[in-house]
Amino acid sequence: MSRRHPHGEHTDWCARDHRCGHDGHRSPSMIVDLPGHARAVLTRIRTAGGHDQAEIRIRVALADADPAARRQLAVLLADLDDLITRTAAAGRPHPRPNQHGHRPAA
Prior knowledge:
It is built from one helix and four strands, in the order E-E-E-E-H. The protein is an alpha+beta fold. It folds into two domains: about 1-60, no CATH class; about 60-90.
């Protein structure tokens, strides 16, 4: 039996420890580490309001020269924008085919 939490029963993926605090439920963190280059930490969260979210913290090594570092940041922001857009689209239901078997254009 799972123990009670101020925001309801723990989820199957909840860490059920100090990470799961007063603000909702949190999973154990998943880590991608590329030593000397980057580190990303992803945590699944169910907010106190019942919304599931992903919290992602990323550290990326930047070039020492400012123009190169700015280019890296521009690439990072563009890729994050694309990642967030594709992730949001993946959560939407697929349109149902019409009577002729065609799906409506997106």
